[in-house]
Amino acid sequence: MPPMCVRIDLERLRLRLSAEQGLVLSDADVRVWLRDRGFHVEGEAWACDGPEMRAMLRDDEVTETITTLTENGVTYINTVKNRPC
Description:
By secondary structure, this protein is α+β, with helices and mostly antiparallel strands. The protein has one domain (4-81). 31% of the residues lie in helices and 35% in strands. Helix 1 (10-21) packs across helix 2 (27-36).
């Protein structure tokens, strides 16, 4: 599986997690939630190991998905921007 990074609308994720947990979560709480599930910051995006991790997020929480693939010394970058809801 090629490496994958996602840009996350942290506010949308915070609102969903807050509603699910019945608490008002902070931005720091959301970052801890992401790290606890294996996400890590890579530049301005969150890196994840693939579709299984991406599936933890709702489509409206991901603003962009970036995948890379290296073949014969050439790295290809594919960026998909999600439409805002």
